[in-house]
Design goal:
This protein is an alpha+beta fold. Helices cover 40% and strands 29% of the residues. It has a single domain (2-152), classed as CheC-like (Chemotaxis protein chec, 3-Layer(aba) Sandwich). The chain has helices spanning 2-21, 61-72, 85-105, 123-130; strands at residues 25-28, 40-48, 52-60, 112-113, 117-121, 136-140, 143-152. Strand 2 and strand 3 form a beta hairpin.
Length: 153
């Protein structure tokens, strides 16, 4: 069942990034991640209902700025856009989670979601994340994106 959930999350993540942020994700192996520079952010959301779990998303601040700019219809280097980066990451994760739960459980079940939380991560944490079992890794433009799903029945 967890393999099916990962497949659904993979499809959902790619679709949401494409339709909401106009970014195209391609899954890669964790060992093929291009070197990343700059600040890294993580966001986490938990859900409880028919099944419970957590989705975590890890990206560069530069990609979060790109997401924010695409949401707002401005350039990624527009004034003040970096201040919107954490909120853009939390919003895209919220949309990914909602779409994932609907795809995985259907329209009927009700889930309680937490408010997404974001934090900065350093290079050591990024390396640990890439070594996490079952981590899903993508390349989006030149950015690396990692996503982790934990599900409890």
């Amino acid at each position: 069942m967890e393999k099916e959930m990962r497949r659904i999350l993979d499809e959902t993540l790619c679709e949401v990034l494409e339709k909401q942020a106009f970014l195209f994700a391609e899954e890669i192996e964790p060992g093929d991640v291009p070197p990343q520079s700059g600040k890294m952010l993580s966001a986490r959301i938990t859900f409880a209902g028919t099944f419970s779990g957590t989705i975590s998303l890890y990206v560069t601040e530069a990609m979060c700025c790109e997401i924010a700019a695409n949401f707002l219809g401005v350039d990624a280097d527009a004034p003040g856009i970096s201040g919107k980066a954490p909120d853009a990451l939390k919003e895209i994760l919220n949309v990914i989670c909602g779409n994932f739960l609907t795809a995985a459980a259907g329209d009927g079940p009700v889930f309680d979601l937490t408010v997404p939380q974001s934090t900065d991560i350093d290079n050591a944490e990024w390396s640990k994340i890439l070594a996490t079992p079952d981590i899903m890794v993508y390349v989006v433009d030149e950015y690396a994106v990692a996503c982790h799903l934990e599900v409890q029945q």
